[in-house]
Design goal:
Layout: H1 2-18, H2 20-53, H3 55-66, H4 70-73, H5 80-86, H6 103-124, H7 133-142, H8 146-160, H9 168-184, H10 188-201, H11 206-218, H12 222-235, H13 240-252, H14 256-269, H15 274-286, H16 290-304, H17 314-334, H18 338-351, H19 357-373, H20 377-389, H21 399-409
Helix pairs in contact: 1-2, 3-21, 7-8, 8-9, 9-10, 9-11, 10-11, 11-12, 12-13, 13-14, 14-15, 15-16, 15-17, 16-17, 17-18, 18-19, 19-20, 20-21
Length: 415
């Protein structure tokens, strides 16, 4: 306490001796302290955001690390090991773009909405007076200058007042296109606000509901995604993609019977929606209904080999076909058909695109597990070597489990 008083007395004496210079030092110290506080606040928020963004990843790492014998856990259909594996690590992937085998369906839906939007723009253009803000906004939208169009339309709203809804669809269209641009730029919050503004102008604007549902799903906001998809389905009950995504939301919410019903409705609407066969098979596999799981996996694989899927990108189609084989292998493993499981995984590796590192790594890890079960550590280590030779993907699974297995087998890898 005495030392603190001495220090304070010394500071006062120095301040009195040096006058204005001491005041500058004092004020500078205060400013520096404030700047450090502000910097610390924003750094803390950034760190917290990263921790929240990777919360599921940490949970997945913990799960993968504690499940040292993950494949034997597959014998218990309802345990965390099964759920974690069958959902293909969706909970720990916050991919900035639309991902998954259904990517081409979203592309087709976007094109469908764009055709409808262009038809609408052409239909209203003749009735729009020349030289007006509306004409200029339409021109900017058609040229792809969405932000400029929104600025013009906002000026128009200010002139007309909130009660004027003459061009509500035009404004909703512009904000929806703007939201899509922001979504692709990974500006999640801004994209959400753009879609909400579109729906404020036109609550029944189907495209905005669909894309907002997708955004909420990607951001792990399952209840919000469910609500938007349900509204979109009320507007277009025969759009299979809306029901498929609603079913995936139900899976995240743990409502498996509702997911099952939606996937089956998808196949009633569109029998060639092969992704739905895969998801149904995973649901039945997860609940131990192996005959049903096998039926849907095999039927989906059959449809994926037909020429009716000509609109698929080859790499996306091959990834889905390989996933069917991998899931059939999981089924064979659970029913103790080791040789058949190994055969199915071999077929999956033959089909997986060379760039699909995650799919190939999962198949190689499962093979290593199977050969461990078969008491063949040499082949198990060989597949683990191939596993570690591949680049690590966005998903950390099954890296920790593979490292544990390699240590248990005492594998020695070539550098």
């Amino acid at each position: 306490m005495e030392s603190q008083k001495d220090l304070f007395s010394t500071w006062l004496a120095w301040k009195e001796e040096h006058g204005i210079y001491a005041e500058l030092v004092e004020k500078g110290g205060i400013i520096l302290f404030i700047l450090l506080l502000i910097g610390g606040f924003f750094f803390g928020r950034s760190l917290l955001g990263r921790m929240e963004g990777h919360g599921d990843t940490r949970k997945a790492i913990q799960l993968a690390s504690t499940e040292s014998d993950q494949m034997q856990a597959m014998a218990k259909p309802n345990d965390e090991g099964t759920r974690f594996l069958l959902e293909h690590v969706e909970a720990i992937q916050k991919n900035p773009v639309i991902f998954g085998p259904e990517f081409h369906r979203w592309q087709a839906l976007i094109e469908q909405h764009q055709i409808a939007d262009n038809a609408y723009l052409r239909s209203i253009t003749p009735s729009v007076p020349s030289g007006t803000d509306v004409e200029e906004a339409i021109f900017q939208i058609q040229e792809g200058h969405i932000e400029e169009a929104i600025q013009i339309l906002n000026r128009l709203l200010e002139k007309q007042g909130d009660s004027e809804k003459t061009y509500a669809r035009l404004i909703a269209l512009a904000y929806t296109h703007y939201g899509m641009q922001l979504f692709r730029a990974q500006r999640w919050g801004d994209a959400q606000m753009a879609y909400l503004e579109a729906l404020e102008q036109k609550p029944s604007y189907e495209a905005a509901l669909a894309y907002l549902g997708l955004l909420e799903y990607q951001m792990q906001r399952s209840e919000e995604a469910k609500r938007h998809y349900q509204k979109a389905i009320r507007l277009d009950s025969e759009q299979a993609l809306y029901r498929y995504n609603l079913a995936k939301v139900y899976i995240r919410l743990g409502k498996y019977s509702k997911a099952n019903a939606q996937f089956k409705r998808v196949l009633t609407i569109e029998p060639n929606f092969v992704e739905a066969y895969n998801e149904l098979g995973k649901l039945y596999l997860q609940t131990g209904q192996f005959d049903e799981a096998k039926r849907y996996f095999e039927e989906g694989l059959k449809h994926s080999n037909e020429n009716t899927l000509v609109d698929w990108e080859p790499s996306g189609l091959h990834t889905l076909q390989a996933t069917f084989y991998k899931n059939l292998a999981l089924l064979k493993f659970q029913t103790h058909q080791w040789a058949e499981a190994i055969k199915q995984l071999g077929q999956a590796l033959e089909i997986y695109p060379i760039t699909d590192w995650q799919g190939r790594r999962e198949a190689l890890y499962l093979l290593a597990r199977l050969y461990t079960t078969q008491k063949d550590p040499q082949l198990a280590c060989s597949h683990l070597q191939k596993f570690f030779d591949l680049p690590t993907s966005l998903s950390l699974y099954p890296e920790p489990s593979a490292q544990i297995l390699a240590e248990e087998l005492k594998c020695t890898f070539a550098s």
